[in-house]
Amino acid sequence: MKKIVLGTFNLAALMACQGAAEKEAASTDSHADYAATLQEQLLDAQSGDVIEIPAGRFTFDRSLSLTVDGVTIRGAGMDETVLSFKGQIAGAEGLLVTASDFTLEGLTIQDTKGDALKVNEGKNITIRGIKTEWTGGHKTSNGAYGIYPVQCENVLIEDSVAIAASDAGIYVGQSENIIVRRNRAEYNVAGIEIENSVHADVYDNVAIHNTGGILVFNMPNLPRPGHSTRVYDNTIVENNTKNFGHAGTPVASVPAGSGIVINSNDKVEIFGNNIRDNKTANIIISSIHMAGFEGLSTQDDFDGYPEGIYIYDNTLEGGGNSPDGLDLKALKVAKFGLSGSLPDILWDGFQDSEKFVDGKIVDEHRICVDNGDIQILNADAPNGFGNPDVVDMSAHSCELEKLKPVKFSG
Amino acid sequence: MRFVFVALIALWLSACSPDSEPIETTATLSVPDPVFHESGNPKTLTEWGQIASNGVEIKLASEAIIFDLNSALFSDYALKLRTVWLPDGRAAQFQPDQSFDFPIGTVITKTFYYPRGTSEGQVLKPDESHGIYSHAANIESYRLLETRILAHRKEGWIALPYVWNDAQTQAELKRIGDIKPLTLVDAEQQTEFAYVVPNVNQCAGCHATNNTTRKIEPIGPKARHLNRDFAYETGPENQLKFWEANGVLDDAPAQVEIDKTAIWNDDSASVNERARAYLDINCAHCHNKVGPADTSGLHLEPDTKFGPNLGLCKPPIAAGTGTGGRLFGIIPGKPEDSIFVYRTASTDPAVMMPELGRSLAHNEGVALLEEWIKNMPGNCTDPAK
Residue B76 forms beta bridges with which residues? Predict the structure, then answer.
C-alpha cells in the first residue's frame, strides 16, 4: 500500500484561494502554501527576474523546477533560508534547472529524495553560498548528488557546503569551463567530483571526512571524455568515511581513505594542496581497467588511461596507514610492515603501450611528480597485482606544460 | 458567438452544481466549437472549445479527431482520450521518425480518466471493456481527472494541464499541477496512490525532447505510433489513412513504407519488438541522443543498436540510489540483477523510471522487460572478478 501524504488537498485548496494580489510575504514559518507560491513564481519568471526567498523553513512535497533563462533565485542566507524536502513524494530532485544564465545563492536544500540541485544543460551557471544536506547523517539512502550541474558551460560553484550525499557532494559532469572554489564538502562518498569535463579549476576547497576527497574521473559511454583539470590549494584531510555509495555507481569502488583520485582522466595538475591523513592513500591514479568495466560495458573508442598527470608542490602528511580493502591491507603489511604505510601515491600501473613511441611512453602522457621525497606505489594491476612495488621515481621525474587558468567563454 | 454561448452554460453549470446534485441538463450540452488562443493561459478547458461536459456526458468538437497509439506511456493505469484538431483547411506534414509537422493553430488534447469504483476516490484498473472512443459519450461511470492541452502557437508549442472538478462539469487550469489521492481497485487488491498532475515545467520535462532547443513537441503523434486501426464512428480504419482522407495529413508515403511500432501487450509481435516499443514510448522522450537524459549515455530510441548505449552491460553514470546495488543496466538472462527492472518496478522518487508521470508500478510493463532481458543472449563481465 502506498502512502498518501495528507495535506495535499489543503495545498490545492489554499492555492486556489490565494490570489496573486494577496502577497502575504511568506515569512518565517513553514507555510505549506509557500511551495505553491514559489513554484508559481518559477513558472512565471522572466529573464532578469530575481526571485527572493525569505528567511524561514519551507517544506515541499514535490520537486521545484525552473526552465527560464536569466533568473536568479536568492535566499536570505545559507543558514536563514531552508528548503526542506523531507516527505517528498514526487520528483527526482529538489530543484531542477534547465536554463542558462542562472544564479542560485544563499539558501539550503535539505533531505531531497534524489539530487538536491540539478542543473541540466545551461550556460553561465553560478552557485554561491548554497548548502545541500541530508540531515540524518551519511546514509546510503540519501540522495546521490548535492550540487550537480551537468552538460553546462561556464560553471562557478563557490562558498557552498555539501554534506552527506550518497554519491558526490559537488559533482560537475560533462561540462566545460568550471571553477569550484572555497567550498566545503564533508561526509559525502565523493567530496568534489569532476567527471567527463573539460577545463576545471578546483581550488581553496576543504574536503574532509568523505570517502574520497576530490575525484577527477572519466566514464565510458558518454558523449565526450574530460581533460584539463587543475586541483590546487585545497585542504584534503581525513577522508576516511566508510564507502556508503550504492553498488554499481562509479564512486562505490572508491576506497575509504582516498584524498585525490584520478581515474581515466587526462591532463590533471595537482599542486599546492594540503593533503593529510587519508588512510588508503593521499593520491590515487587509476584507469578504467582497474575499475573493471571492460568488454561489452564500454564503447570501443573509450580511452581509459590516465595520461599527462602532473603532481607538484603539495604538502602531504600521514595517510596510507590503514588502507581500505583486504588486498591493500595485505599489501601494506607485506611491503611496509604492520606499523608502516603505503606511499602517498597509489597507481594501478596501467599504461597504454599502443601509444608508445620507440617502446617508450611519450612525454605528454607521463605521470610527472615533483614533490620532495614523495613516493609512488605501482600496484602492478596489469600483471594481476603480481609484483607491486615502490617505483624508481626517476621514471617520473619530468615536467609537463602547465595548464592555463580557466576562463569563461563569452 | 457559439463559443461564448457554450462557455456561459458551462460556467453556469459549474457555478450551480453542488457536489452530488444530479444535473438534468444533458439535452442542453452543445457540441463545443474550437477556439485557438494565440496567447494567454485560458483558465478553463471550456474556453478551448475542444471538450464540453455537463457531468453526465461529454462532447468533443466535431472536427476533432480521436486517436490512439500502438503503445502508450504508462500513467498509473489511467485511460486516455486523445484528440487532435487542426485549424480550417490546414494539414500536418508527414515526418518519417519525428512527430508530424503540425500547423500553427493545432490543438491536441489528452484526457486522463478511470472507471469509477464504488466509493469516492476509488477507481478501477481498466480492462478492454472500458474506454471512451466517440464524440459524444456518457461519462457517469468514469472519473475524469485532468485534460492536458498541447497548442501550437507562433512561438512554439505550449502545454497546459486542466484539472476536472468533482462534478466533472469543468476543468480548471492548474499550472503548478495537483495531487489527487486515489485508490486503484482490481480483482486482487486495493492500492492507494497519489495521482500527480504535472506542473507546466514538468510537462516540458517530457515534451521538450531535445534538451538543447527545449522546444515542446508532441510525442505520441508520430507515424509509427499512429499506424494502426481505430474504430471510428464510421467504422474501423487505419488512422493515417483516415487522417489523410480527412485532409489533416499531407505527404504520407504508401502504407507499406511506414514504420509501425508494436503494441506492447499484443503477443503477435516478438518480445523484442514489444519491449523496444515499450521503451520507445515510455523512456525515449528523455533517453535519446539529445534529450534531458543524454547525460546518462543510455539511449532508448528504436534505432539504438544492441550495445552499451541500450543498457547492455552498461555501468550507471549518475544513478545514485537508482542502481539498487546492481552493476549494469541490463545483464542478459538476469532481469533481477538488471537496473532496468529495478528502476521501472520502483515507486521511490529517487529510484523510479520514468521519473515523472507515475506513482504506481506498471507490473505488466515490468514483466515484459523482464521477459525481454531473460531471453537476451550474452553476459557481462563482473568487474569484481
Answer: none
Domain coverage including residue B284: 269-374
Indicate the domain borders of chain A.
114-396
Chain B contact present for A225, CB below 8 A: no
Please state, in angstroms and rounded to a whole number, the distance separating the CA atoms of residues B291 and A20.
34
| Neighbour tally for A370: CB within 10 Å | 17
Pairwise CB contact (< 8 Å): A62 & B294:
no
How far away is chain A from the Cα of B353, in angstroms, using its nearest Cα?
Answer: 9
Distance CA A236, CA A254 (A): 15
In chain B the first and final C-alpha atoms are separated, in Å, by: 75
Predicted ipTM > 0.90: no
Q: Are B189 and B57 in the same domain?
A: yes
Provide block-wise average pLDDT over 10 residues at a time, chain B (385 residues): 39 41 60 96 97 97 97 98 95 96 98 96 95 96 98 97 97 95 94 95 92 94 97 96 96 90 97 98 96 94 94 91 92 97 96 95 98 93 59
Q: How many domains does chain B have?
A: 2
Structural domain includes residue B337: yes
Q: How many CB atoms lie within 10 A of CB B118?
A: 7
| Residues B293 and B164 both lie in one domain | no
Contact assessment for residue B218 and residue B157, using Cβ atoms and an 8 Å cutoff: yes
Final residue of a structural domain among B232, B255, B280: B232
A144 → closest Cβ in B191, B318, B347 = B318
Residue at which a domain ends, from B174, B203, B232: B232
**Which residue type is seen at A333?**
V
User: Strand B171-173 and strand B156-164: pairing?
Assistant: antiparallel
Tell me how close the Cα of B339 comes to any Cα of chain A, in angstroms: 9
Q: Is residue B82 part of a domain?
A: yes
Cα Rg of chain A (Å, integer): 23
How many Cβ atoms sit within 10 Å of the Cβ of residue A273?
28
Determine, yes or no, domain membership for B368: yes
Picking from B26, B251, B21, B303, the residue whose alpha carbon sits closest to that of residue B137 is B26
- Please give the Cα distance from B259 to B282 (Å, whole number): 18
Residues B95 and B140 in one domain: yes
What kind and span of H or E run contains A62?
strand A62-66
pLDDT in tens, A202-261: 999 999 999 999 999 999 888 889 999 999 999 999 999 999 999 888 899 899 999 999
Judgement on whether residues B159 and B40 belong to the same structural domain of the protein:
yes
Q: Are residues B290 and B364 both part of a single domain? A: yes
* Partner residue facing A40 (CB), from B176, B327, B383: B176
Q: Which of A62, A143, A248 sits opposite B326 (nearest CB)?
A: A248
Is residue B240, in this structure, part of any structural domain at all? no
This prediction has a pTM of 0.87
CA dihedral B328, B289, B200, B146 (to 10 degrees): -70
Chain A residues with CB under 8 Å of B382 CB are 292
Q: Are residues B176 and B304 in the same domain?
A: no
A158 closest CA partner among A53, A98, A70, A78: A78
For helices A34-44 and A8-17, the axis angle rounded to 10 degrees is: 60
The x, y and z cell numbers of residue A371, run together, are 614533490
